[in-house]
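Researcher: Batch entry, complex prediction.
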Amino acid sequence: MLVAMYSGFVRGEVFLHARASAFRWLLGFLSGSSIGVLLGVITGVVSSDLNRSIQKKIGRQVIEDSLQFLRAIPIIGLPTVVIFVAGVAEWGKILIISWGCVFPVWLSTHRGLQALDPEYSYLARTFRLSRVEWIAQIVIPAVAQSVYSGLRIALAVGWITVVAAEWLGVVEDGWLGYGLGVWLWRSQENNSIAECMAILLYFGLLGIASDNIFSDIVRRIGLALRFNLGVE
Amino acid sequence: MQPLLVQFRGLTVQRSQNLVISNVDFHIRSGEIVSMMGPSGVGKTTLLRTIVGGRLEPGSYADQVVFRQDLLESDTPTIGYMPQDDHLFPWATAYRNIEYSLQRERRQDRKGRILRLAERLGIPCRLLERYPHELSGGERRRVALARAISAHPKLLLLDEPFSSLDPALRITCREFVVSELSEGSSCLLITHDIEEAVSLSDRIVILGGVPAHVERELVVTHEGLRGTSRLLEEPARQVYLEVVEHFKAVSRQSNFLIA
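Model: Structure tokens for the complex:
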């Protein structure tokens, strides 16, 4: 396995595959987490504990059930449907990765907003904060830690779904004609177990690298804004 | 008699189809310190939050509501609020937490005021750069108190502010509150400490019953000694004994024992 890792590294093969996979992962992660935050804000505000009317309670139940329903759809089965619609087009792969990233971020944003301490709104009133200041200075930092946790989970889920997405195959033309997932499926077809395991380890390394880079970016943002976002 | 700052007549508050407060008449005048006492869960915090909001929230009704105009229409904070569990913002340092209430001030003015408050409350400068989870319970409460009072509010609302402080810090903080309240400023204090209520307040309102209503209202005569320990002196001692007797009677009715 280590020999397979080494030879893939020396031949430069891993860089070609990793570059294409990282590109798909990044687009999928960015689009999925953006949609996740947006949906989390909408559902979190609607079903917030601050709103206790009967209609809101029914609305909250509908939102919670919809979220659980969509979350339970297996990502690993998605390519079987997407391939009919998108074929081997790039957007189909990014759609699958994006789908995987949406839910951890949606759920964490939703839960973060639901858990927002009502006492903060009383304090904000005494500080005479405007609506924009309330969101920027209290809601966002209060929810940020929860969203950050969701984003970190989405990072890892993104890499997992890259394998499922690249199962769709690629057009072997240009730098997007590669992918760690593509390489993995081919190695499996060639019965090269050592190479398969080496590729899985590459995925692990990319997971660590992306998580560290992401945490560092968040830490720097926190320092710049003087917010403790819970990043050690 | 000083003008009214806040007044409710016939205040009734309903939460989740339960009547929490029923037909309460309550007022605070300019320059007055009012203590609110009563059993835990009776509705003291609910009443306080009605005032923090500056308006009646859904589920609250009153025959008459008065908030003095300048209390609501000013751009700068006019109400200082310290919740029961301090509720410091965990993402912000102690300094930033206090600074939240000074946002309408010029930046250069804020620092001086925060440092002065910290010094008076015995908060070392190094603690101001720490996050709430790095502070002890007593330090957190002092930071929360500084945040509530830093903008020189016209009305200060304190919900059991000194409950987790040691006796020495309690006295320091009480004296601090009395001295920091500027001319004409008022304070509503929720407390379970009879001595605290008598030594600080001009008036003590005792809530009781389900739903809560005003059971007793006692006036304390200060003679210029507000905030100091004057319990052995008349007439504050009489009020103290009266409140003690009241709570003894309530506890007897509830089959609790007071030694």
